[in-house]
Structure formats: structure tokens, C-alpha cells
User: Fold these one by one.
Assistant:
Number 1:
Amino acid sequence: MKKKLFAVVMASMMAVASFAACDKSTGTDQTAGTAAPPDATNAAGESIYSEEAIQDMTMFCAMIGSEINSDNDIQELIAQKTGVRLKETWLTGQTAGEAIGSIMASGDLPDLMDGGDGSLTLYENDMLVAWDPYLDMYPNLKEMYSETEWDQFRQEDGHIYWANVFGNHYNGVDTATGHNGEAFWVQARVLEWANYPEIKTLDQYFELLENYYNEVKTMPDGETTLIPYTALGYDWYYFCIENPPMFLDGYPNDGCCIVNVDDPANPKVEDYNTTDTAKRYFKKLNEEWNKGMINKDFATQNHDDYITMLTSGRVLGLCDQYWNFGNDIAGPFKTNKLDSLGGQTLSEIGCDYVPLGLTIDAGMTNQWHSYGDELNNASGCAVTTSCADPNAAFKFLSDLLDQDVHNLRFWGIEGEDYLIDDDGYFYRTEEMRANWNDPEFKAKHCCFYSYCPQWLGISRDGKNAMNPGEQPSEFYATLSEPFANCLKAYGATTYAEMIGSVVCETYPWYPLWSWSNLLNNETDAGVAWAKMADVKHEWLPKVIMSSNFDSDWDKYMKAYNGTGVEDFLAGAQAEVDARLATARENGYTG
Amino acid sequence: MVATFFKGEWLSMSLSSASSRRTKKRRSNGVEFTAKEVKRQWVLIVISVFYVIYGLIFNYVPLAGWIMAFQNYKLKTGIFHSKFVGLDKFKFLFTSSDFIGVVRNTFCMGALNLIFSTITAIGFAILLNEIKNLWGKKIIQTVSYLPHFLSWIVVCGIVSDALSTTGIINELLIKFHILDDTFLFLGSKPWFWPIVTLSHLWKETGWNAIIYLAAITSIDPALYESASIDGAGRFQKMWYVTLPSLRPTIMILLLMNIGNVLNAGFEIQYILGNDVVRSVSRTIDIYVLQWAMDGTNLDFSLGTAAGVFKTLVSIVLIVAGNTIAKKTGDERLF
Amino acid sequence: MAPEDIVFTICNTIFMVLFAVVTLYPILNTLAISFNEGNDAVRGGIHLLPRVWSLKSYSIVIHKEGIIQGAKITVLRTIIATLASLAANALLSFILSRKKFLFKSGLSLFWIITMYANGGLIPTIVLFRSLHLIGTFWVYVIPGLVSAFNVMVMRTYMSGIPDSLEESAQLEGAGYMTVFIRIISPLCKPVYATIALFSAVWHWNSWFDAMLYNRSNLKYTTLQYELMKLLDSVSTQSSANQSANALSQGNTATANKNTVRAAATILTMAPIICLYPFLQRYFVTGLTIGGVKE
């Protein structure tokens, strides 16, 4: 009996050991043979890959996403053009770390992977293939980033293991009509009621909200009270409560600290949590709380409650990043015809949110909106060492950037999903737009390969946008009247112009949140960062809801200073200097 | 008759435990370990061997993974080559200022949940048994267990909506002049544990009562008849017939659930918890998620160490519970 | 009837009705939301009736690729695993409930520890991998055959059956297995039904094991796993990482997560509710032990 037990134990130990011992390939596969060319022709006489020649590959993305059907139309077309059919699987019910751990333990590794938060773990466990040799082979891939930017992706061993696919404008031309980042938002009808005043400072903003609230008080139905201001404090979403001091001082979104560039050659890291602006901002929030202007549930709501409240149209103003609420409320605002509004939708009565780029004092410039690319080197699309044919994988990634394939991914099939007008511009009908918002249709027809290389900006034909979301005609077609009037009144044509940020180049170290997102307990800076977050979670709601602000603020500062902030700032400074040095090596002068 | 039978059993058990102290060869259930007995029970023994093998493979072999709690486990180096760090991970847990509070939260919420859910499940089962109309009984019983099938996300959504400052609870309390102004229930530290407990009761009472209902059906009706003959009223029947008959089931379930008191919490605390009440809402599992299962902080060793800690506490608790059950002559776990 | 009896009956009835209403509310609420149109449901405020009627959510759920296969596998799994584990648990309970069993205490302790001692996620996956269970159907059935909790509940129940039945059968020459099959089991119908119900519901709802061991294997996916994936696909975002993704997909879902989740919940609950009446008679009507004169 004991022997059997021993044998079984040993057997399983061996299994564990052998699993740990395999996958030791260093991931620098230098053999780059030529990929097989297309071997068939389709009805239109173009050369495509036949069914036998198409390779099936798998990709796991450590993020939430949608699965497409196995008979998806566009996926088939792309497979015929590129020779690869990619099955994507997504994160469900686990954290990125757990998922990567379970995938590795079960031995069921995919060919491609975007490890999300766990990308560094993948690299440290020798699971990824280096991009370097393939960059030279496939110009489409190399084109994605400049030399300096590619250097940002280099790991400790000097090789590149993944490439982030987002926020990348072709030829650097930024055409964004929307604003995906953070801002103070206000409903269009509030600005209209006040006759489109200049709202540039925090004080002016809250004064506007108060005046509208005191005058109007309820929604058009006469009963539902308005909520002048809210902000979400739930879990990791609390950045819109804690980081405005950074923006209010006119700095861009480095996310974890301010980088002072009074002397651009010697950038200095500063902490935005302890500045005078921070105290003034929280004091202002505290005043508004005591006047009853802030949503009473702001500190206890979770994300779903928050969205539900926003879709009622009662909230006049908020501070948040667009992606956190904009997409969720867009549908309801545009389509729900409400009896309480006399059959109109919330968009039609002016509840759409207009962004404002506020500063703490008048006359300051702001950088709420960043022009140009935001490089996030923390994660990206990667090829794993368990891929049987890395060359085919990289060729596939490269093919996805070809203009015709790219159009299939984001615009769709010409004639079915978009039409071309006389000047050569792409546009969609209402029906096409509705289809592309329907999950059932998307599963059957659309194939974005959304974590594989892609472009934003203007496509190679020089006219149309790479992504329909940035096509001006699409943008203007979906604007509501009050919102459009607002933009006109302020002389703006896009969200970005409404915010009025300074148009300037981003610095080489920007955005610093790509560094802070990767911090863990193994460095002093990481431990300090975690403790700082704990203290802020604990104290910021208290400080806002306090009845004695100054004394609570002092207690908060005392707790904050005990977290080892100096270690964090030292780490941030080191990172800024390192990125600057890398940029200088590649010819940056600034 | 069954009740007296039980009493007799209890007597004989205590006698046998007394005698086991005198002769070492007797087992705790009063049986001599002789070759004759082994031969008599050979079927049982052989089958048991298969169960032991199965249990070893599927339940005990993975325990070898506990060694991860004493290593700095990395996926690359695996179990054999990860660096051995002794009690470092445990030290990290116990010296963390959060961890003690987190254990306290988990334990208290688990204990509250255990006590109240046991009481309400038994109470509901007994009261339901008293309903004479068969169809009424069936319908109510069916409806009662349905919330068990809802996910916590759905139930917490309803709870947080009802308790918000614009929700129905505040509305009613103000209408009946119990409150002057809205009260932020979800932001109140004293209220968090009761809210969690009540949510559990709402969702699980009907389901938990199923076992007790099944046990009640096996009570010999003759007992109730003889109790009636002796002049017992409804409540006396409940107290002297139903409850004692349920006692073994109650004790076993209590014993098993005591061991689970530290496993009581993740979903509901994660969803309903927020920054204002975080000092009372965070549980061990949430703590482990933050420090060990985050993508950037992937530390399986820390997670395993917390798991080892929970197991040790569970075992201490059930051994203690079992000993008490032994002393009171109740049904024991082992 | 004595007056106190009448009062009790009235109070009890009122209490039960209230209880039923309170526990029925979330179900009716979920039902209402599932039949509501997505964008309208986001506003909240739906109680017992849908505000804007729509079957779109059900359509999305039913048309998800893999739902049918998932349903087949789940049904198969529930039936096979429930019956197998019921048999396995019952036999072990029988052994442990035999008062004279020599290893009663030891074997009980052996299994009780398994309730609280868990090797963790990674060691379990590694074990299954070495047993070649990953990517198969049997990974759903074999590991969960014996559950100490169920065994203990059944053991308690079986211990309550009088010894005299067993003794008189053995006098007539019946071995242990005959006693188990012919004498004890028929009397255990309530507890068998209870454990079968618990087991069936557990298997019906499980998705985590499908994700770990059959992640991309559509052949052995389960219903709940497909539904979990579906729920994620109709949510618009979940982290800063995905903010850019949302932009690239122009993601403004017209079907909302709330309604799809409600529809998925109703669809998974419905079969259980249909199955339940067959088992309910064991819990609600009386059952005499009978057969023995003390």
C-alpha cells in the first residue's frame, strides 16, 4: 500500500517536473523559411488559399472579448487571402494571472497570445518567440513603430517579444474625432441653458452645475430629481476621483505621477497626490458634498449601478474616462424613446456629455487630450513557443495590415457593410450601422481580430479612416442636435477641439502608466505603490464626505506619508530617465 | 419507539467507549479487532481499499502541491526547482497589517452565516412541515429554493439597488417616519455584516432546508401518534419529537460547516464591498486575489500559503467540534 | 382544534405566503428583465413586468454557436455523473454507517479531511494532465465521484435505520451487498433524492472545469461555459487595457449584458424546475419506515 502511494506520488512529481522542464526553447527561432504562396483562384480570378492550404491557429487573449462563429463570413475571406484561420479565445471568470497559470499547467498552449497584465510572466517563463528576425522580413510589421518605439518593447535580454496594437496612427496622423480619455463632462443642455459660457476652471464648472440644478431641479417629468455631479469610486475605477489633480495642473495623463518639464532636458517626477492643487480639488469636492451636490451613493456604487444611474439622464456632470461610460450609455441615450420626455430620447433633449478640459486656475493650458500615439509597452500581441510555424504566424500578422485585409476587418465587405460615394469616401447606411451593433450579426459576419496588429488614422488611400469610428462622416451622422449645436457654439468640430488641449508632441517617457501598471511586490517602488493605493482607497471617500475637512486631510496625509512614497517616486524617476536615455540613443534631441 | 431506541443506542455507545479504555484491542465503536471479525467484514474492507486508492489519487496526491507554499514558486522552475524559502510566505501573510483584519472579517461573516442559516433552515423546514395542504406545501417549497439558482451578481444587484439612497428601503423608512433623511446602508460599517448575512438567508434558506425536509419525512408517524396520545400539543411535538429526530442531521451538518467558516466569502463581499466599508468587507479570498492572483503579482506560493492556513484552521475547528460532539454523545464526524 | 392551534395555523400560513413572495420576487424580476429590450433595461426600474417587450436576448442566447452542443454535453454529464456519484457515495456511506465496521473512524477521517484540504488549482491541473483526463469528457465525471459532504449526510441518514433490519436479513443468510441493495437503499429514497438533486444541480451549473480542461474544445463544452462566454461578449469593456479595443470595435452593444444574463439565467433554471416535481415527493410527503415491530 505504501509502495503504491509512493509510486503514485513519484509519478505525479515526475509529471510536474517534466512539465516544468519542457518549453525551454529560448524563443529566438532564426530559421525563417519562405511561407507557402496561394495555390488556388476564386471566382473573381484572384489568387487565394485553398481549404487544404489554410492553416488553423489559436490565440488566447487575457482580456474579455467575443467569440465568433466558426462559419464567420469575413473570417473565411481573410483565411482565403492570408492562408490562416485564427480561432480566438478570451478570458472568462479568472484573472489574467490565473488564466495563464492554468493554461500553462494544462499544457494546452495557443499559437498566439496577448497576455494582458501577465505578459511579463509569459516572457519570464520563456514562452514567447522574439520578433526581431521577423521585423526585417515583414515590412508591414516593422512599419508599426519607429526605432525608438521598438526599443521600448525590448526586454532585459534585448529582444522584442510583443507589440501593442492599439493607439497606433498610420504615418502619425491623428484623426480622432472622439476623445477616449479622461475629462470633466457636462450635459449639453446645461451649457445651452447657460448660453454656452466659458467654463475653464473647476470653480466655474461647479458653479454652472449648481446654478442649473437650483433653477431646474428635476427632469422634464417634474419628479425625478437631478444629480449635479458624480464620480465612480469602485475598486480600480477610482482613478477619476484620485487623478484629476494631475490634469488640473495642466499635465498630461502619465497616470501615476507628474513629470515636470520646466527643464525638458531634465524631467523631474512629482507626486500629484500632495500638491496644493490636490488639496484644493478635494476641498472643493468636500464643499459640494456638504451642499448636497454630489451623488449620495458615489462611494458605494459599483460599475453597473453607476451606468444605470447615468442612463437615467439625471446626472449633470461627472469626471471619467470616455471608454468607462461612453459606450455603455450611447445605445440607451440614442434609442430609448421615453414617455416622460414626450417620446424623445435623452440625446435629443441634450443629455449627451460634452467634455471640458478644466484647470485649477484660469489662464492655464491643459493636456487632457493627447495628440499622437500613446505607446503602451506593457502588453501586446505575441507568438508563443508552442506555435509549430512561427514564420506563418508572423506572415499572418503582417498580412493583417495589408489595406484590403484591414478594410475587411474594420469596414467589412464593400456593398454589404459599407458603400463608396462619388468622391471615394466610405460611408454606411443606418441599417449597416445597426447590423454592426448587433451581437448576433457580429458573431456571424464580423471578424476584427482585435488584438492583432491594426492601424488608426488615415488609410493608405489617403482619404478614408482606417477605422470607421474615426471617419468624419460617420462621426457627424451619429451626433445629436444639441451636441452638434454645442460644438458649433464653441467653434469646435471634434471632441478634442472642445477640450482645447495644447497640441504638442508627447515625450519619450509618456505614458508613465505603462510602467506603473506592471509594478508588483518584488520592487520597493511596487510595494509602495500598492500601499499608496490602499491608503487612497481608505481615505479619499472619507475626505470628500468629511464634516471637518482640514483635520481629515491631515490624517490622510499622515497615513499617506507612511507608505514609502519616496521609493515609488525614485522608481518613477529612474524609469523616466531610462526611457529618455533610450530615446537619446536613437537620436532624440530634447 | 425510535426515540427510545436512540436513547438505548446512546447508552450502549457510552458503555462501549468506557470499555474501550480498559481493553486496548477494542475500537472506538466497541468492536474487537480479531481475525474472525475481519473475515466477517471482508467485503466491506475490500471495497474500502478501492475508495482509499481513489481518494489518494484524486484528493491526497495534489496535496503534494502544498510544498509551493514553502517555495518562491515560479511557473518556469516548477515544483522541483523553485527556490525554497521556508516560512517566508507565511510571514508575509501574518505580518501584513491587513491580514489579521481580513481573517477576522472572514471568520465573523462565516460564523454569522453558519449560525443563522442553520436556525432559519431548520425553522423553515419544521414550519413548512406543519402546513397541511399538500399543494400549498409543494408550491411554497418549490418557490423557496429558486433563489439558489440566481447568481450572486443578480442577487447583489437587487440588494444594492434596494439599499441605495434612492432605493425602496430608504423610501419606506422615510415614509413611515423611521428615518428623517436617507441612510447610506451600503456605506455603513456596522450594517455590512448583517446585510451579507440577510442576503445569504434570502438566497439559500429554501435550499438549505431541503436536507432537513428529507430527514423529517423519515420520522416514524407512530411517534407523533404516541405523543398525541400522551397529550402533546403542536409545539411539544416539535420540541420532543421532530427536533430530537433531526438532531443527528443537524449535528453533522453543523460540524461539516464549521470547517468551512473561513471559506465563506468571496463573491458577495467582492460585489457589495466598497471603499467606505473595506475594513470590514474584505475577506481572505479577496486579499489573496489582490496580492497573489493579479496579473502583475502572480504569486501561487502566497495563494497556496493562504490555502494551507485555511485548511489548518478548518481541521482544528472540526476536531474541536467533533470532540465536543463525542462528549455530548451526539452523532460524530469521525 | 384548540384556539392556539388556529392562531398558529393562521400565522404560519401568513408567514409562508410572505416568505414565498419575498423569494419569488427576484425570480420574477429576472424573468421580466429577460423579456425586456436591452437598451431600455440599462435604465433600471424594472420590477415584475417588462417595460419594452423584446425577445432579442433569448435569440442571442439560443443562437450562440456551441449552445446546442453545450446543452447536449451538460445533459449527458448531469445524468451520467449524478448516477455514478450517487452510487459511489451511497456505497461508501453504507460502509461507514455499519456500526461494527473496523475502520469506521479512520476511513471517515480520511474522507473528511478531503473536504477541507485542497492542493490548489495548479497541482490539480497537473494531476489531471498526467492522468490524460484533459480534453476528455470523463474529466467531468471521474474526479468528482466521491464527495465527503454527501457521504456524511447519507451516512447519518443510514445510521438512523434500525440495526434490527440488517440483523434479521443476515440471519437469513444475506451478505452485506444484499443488505445494501435490498434493504437499506429502498429506505433511503429521500436522502438519495436529496443528494441526486444536489449533484445534478452542481453538474448542470458547472463551467469552471469546462474552462480549465476543455477551454477551446468545442466538442466537450458545457452549457454554462458557453453562457459565461456569451455574457462576456455582450459587455462593452472591463479594463483600461480594453478601452482601445472598444474603440476599434465601435462597441455600442444594442443587447445589454443585464438582459442577456437574465435570459441565460432563466434558460438554465427552467430544466431544473421541470425536473424537480419528480423528486419533490420524497421531501414533502411522509414516508414510513415500517416493517419492524420494536
Note: Confidence is low (pLDDT under 50) at residues 1-24 of chain B.
Number 2:
Amino acid sequence: MTAALPDWLAPLPWLDQAGSDDARLVEHALRADQPGIREFAALLSPAAGRRLETLARRALALTRRHFGSTISLYAPLYLSNYCPTRCTYCGFAADRRIARHKLTPAELEAELSALKTLSIEEILLLTGDRTAVADYPYVRDCVRLAAARFPNVAVEVFALSADEYRGLSAAGCSAVTLYQETYDPVRYEQTHLSGPKRDYLNRLDAPARALAGGMRAVSLGALLGLGQPLFDLLCLYQHATHLRRAFWKGGVAISFPRLRPEAGGSTADFPVDDNFLAQAIFAFRICLPDVPLTLSTRESPRFRDGMAGLGISKMSVASRTTVGGYDLETLPSGAQFDINDHRGVAAFCAALQAKGLQPVFKNWDAAYREQTVPVSAP
Amino acid sequence: MTDGLKLGDRIFSSRLLLGTGKFSSTDAMIRAVRASGAELVTVALRRFHPGRPVDDVFGPLAALEGVTLVPNTSGARDAREAVRAAQLGRELAGSPFVKLEIHPNPHHLLPDPIETYEAAKILVQDGFFVLPYMPADPVLARRLEEIGCAAVMPLGAAIGSGQGLTTMSMLKLIIHEASVPVIVDAGLRSPSDAALTMEIGGDAVLVNSAIATAEDPELMAGAFAAAVKAGRDAWRAGLMPRSEAAAATSPLTAFLADEGAG
């Protein structure tokens, strides 16, 4: 059964405004003291698309004001690619014939060591959807191992219960990344054919459970290209502001994953080009000036270098989307999606520095955790 | 007579404190610190990265002559976290000073008065010279003073907002009543904001974003230093009172002098 969109999420009546060609709405939005959903919609419009340079300048000034001339860096680490869910767009989907693997504790340690030698201090641990092979206890134990060595550990795993999020938080996890993929319940149903992830509302509510469970921050996103972009971006904005109202101590960040060719050969039904992605990032920066905005290595070096500091305040670096992949001893498996920016840490940092941006590896400290005592291997 | 800033058991000649976040490079940050003449420099524990010279902010600052480091607890959500961060900062930096910063909301970063007060009590007992970042609340300022903070650091406006002295009337009350130094922290945009703070009797200012995000941070650091000195000198010299009417430089009643009471 298709889920009903909750009232707080519904993008109407702003959808019309976002499709508008009225330059006056854009002008009003740019002059607003306190831009909100109305202004956000106007800044996504085709009329605003013709003011891209103006939007970029505003985004640059706001990014510099709130985040300075710095870019926070992190690296993803795939723990497991076992997955019971069939997502039409994903290289890990249950029906894909790929090599499956999950990291053993020893392999995880080797991966962590490899990331340490790259100077990485913030890591994002990823899995597929919930399976018996890689369930909550496995993720929690991996978090514990990682947190003993990294000040900042986040997860991008399946939707958990509030109690499970509490457990992860106690194990040393500080943040949760969870994309709704598409906020359109119909498109969601069409692109998630079977498996636990098919439950739209369970996923939608998971970031709130994460914050209720003590996570410091959640990172939201829509997989751009999967649904109607204006609909998804407006809902994403509503989701972020809803969580900020509900959790006054909770951090909310936004990522901009864009559907890319991957191993299964699916393509975007609603392609998002570079110009519109840039426009969407500018609109978020202008309307949510203090929210961290993240761009991953799914994007090309040219686009990443251009957007660094221009709205974007946080970026992944040296990413691998296979299980493990940093330690050469570990056998690589199938990838979730293709990376477009293959530069190593040094090359990427040099590009940031050439733009007058300081790459920041460590911007957190284990002192801010409840438990700072390293825990022995599970 | 020297005009020193007394904090804890130390006396400093500079009244400009510098924050070290947001700079485009460590080199730009170090040059700005030098140009500012600051003797007290805050550094976030979260940016301490021993053994990683590329990323570490602490090491290069520690190597500077004449600079006392003040670890800050930026990132702490509550008193317990702040106390842990302060203790670790002291261990790593070897400084008795701590800038106590507790902002539960990671977006606007406004300080939590209740948690700040609780943490300050513990840290003062633990022997720290506590410099608490706080809302511009005159009552809270006195409460923090009562429990032994070495100074109070009321905000001019939200961190990084560049809105200037939006809390002016409260700052004046705090300054008027304080018997510990008042260091105005956060929100300052321009050297004139810093000069104005000093002219109303503020003891010092702490500046970060306005310098770090300037096109030329080094030049801006020098501009702030000059403004702080000018404002302090003006306060010591005694500003003339504001007046509704013009004041003649030659007395209008001079002709009465001969027959006046003398």
C-alpha cells in the first residue's frame, strides 16, 4: 500500500512556485530577511536558474560566514554489501549477482589502519539494508571498534529503532546519514521492489528516532534523479526544518547524492544536470545558512572543486564504494556505485588549498562522547 | 602606570584575544595572530591533532613566543562534556585557562546559561581560570563572577553573525557592575565595533570570524589591534558626554565674571 505523505512534509502549495518563471518571486526571495520554504521554492524555479551567478555569490558569502574558509573531510567505509532489498538503482540490490562480503573484525581493523594513514579522522560506516548477516549488533560492534580509533564515527545503515540508535550512540557513533531516496511515496514504491526498506514511513521517521536516541546529528538527502526533483527537494527542506523544530539540540545536515551509472546499468528517470544541482545547493545554503551541506565523490573533480566553499562545507575524499577497499590485503567486492572523483587525499587537498580553502580532517574529539574508553574486540 | 588586563594570576598588555577557527590555512592564521599582537589565543580542543602537522592547529600556535593558549570546549552540549573537554585541553596545552563554551544547538551556537554555570562551578574548583562564553545577561554575569570565574565573556551577537553589538544595553549593564574583566566575544564585525566595546569600558574583545573571513586576515588583525588600542585609550582619556545642545567653547556668561561670586 502506498504511504500517505504526512502534512508536515507535503510540498504543496510550494510546488507551483518552484515551477514558476516569475522573476519577481526570485527578487523577493533574494531580499528576504528570513528566507523560508516560500523563498526556497522561488530559488529552485526556472526564473532563479537564470540568476545562478547571483545565487552563487550569496552562497559563497554565507558559506564563508558560517563555516569559514574550511572544508571538513570524511571517508566512507563499506562494512558489508549483503542486502535483502531490491532497490532498482543500487549495485548492492538483492537480485544483483555480485560478490558479497562483510568485514571481519580483523579486516575492519586493517581498513581503519589504512584510513588512519590517509589522515582521515571522520568515517562513515555503511551497510546494505538489514539482514541477519549484518544486523544491528554487527553494526554496533563495528562502531565500537572504529570509535576506539576515530574521534568522529557516523553510520549510513538501515533504519533502526530508537533503542538501537541509543545503543549505537553509546558505542561511540555521533551521527546518522539516512537518505529517503525519494520523498514521493509512489516513486518510492516503484523503486523499492521488496525487502524491509520498502516501508516508506519507517524510513522517513528514522532520522527523528536517531536524534531521539541521542545522535548529535543526522544527514538527510534525496537520491536526485529518482523522483521529480522539485518535489524531492521541497520535501527535503521540509524534513530538515521539521527535525530542527522537533529537536533543538539536534544537528541537521544535507547531502546531495545524484543518481549515477552503476554496475546494474540503471539510469535516472528524472536526470538532474550540473546547473540545477548547483542551483539546488545554492538555494539550500541561502535558506538554511548554518546547515552543513555535503558533496561526495559521486561527483566529478570539476564539479566538486567548483562547489567547494560555494555552499558545500563538507566533502568525502579518497572514497571506495566496495566493501573495504582501503587496505590492499582485503578482497574487493562489488561496488554500490561508481566514483567520479578518484583523486587521493593529497591531490584533493591541493585542489582545495589552491582555492584558498583549508581541508580539515579532525573537527571533533572523543572527549565529547559518553564513553571514551576503548573497548576490546567483540 | 601600565594598563594591563588581569586574568587569573596573569597580566596581559594586549586586550585583543583571537579565535583560530575558519582560517584558510594555518599559515594565514599564524600571520593574523602575529599581526594582532594577541597574547591570549583560543583554540578548539576538537582541532587539536597531535602528530598531524598538516591538520593540527595547536602545534603551530604553541610554538609562538608570547602567546598563551586558551583551549575552548566548542562542541560541548552540556556541562559534563565541557568539563571533560576542558580537562583534556589542559592536559594537552598545559594552560590554566579555559574558554568555557557550551552550545547545545549546533546551528546557532548560542551558549546554554544553565550548563555553563554548572560547568564553571566544577572547573573553578578544579583550579582553572574560567573564561565563560555567555549570553549578555547581567544577572548571569554576576552569578558567574560569584562562583569565581576569572572573567565573563558576554556575546555581542551570535557567533559568526557579524551583526555587531546587538546586545549593547545589556553589555553596558554588565560592564557597569562587573568586578572581573568583561571580554566581549562573538558577533563583532568591524574594528569600529571593537573600538566601541572598549570605549564603553569593556576590558577586552575576542575576535575570530571578522578576521578569519576577511579578504586579508593579517591586515584585518592589525586593524582590530589598532581599534582596540584606540578605544581603550579613549576610555582612559574620558569621553566627553553626549549632549542635546551645542556647547560653546567660550562661555556665554564670561561678561559676568568680574561681578560674579568669584
Note: The two ends of chain B are 36 Å apart (CA to CA).
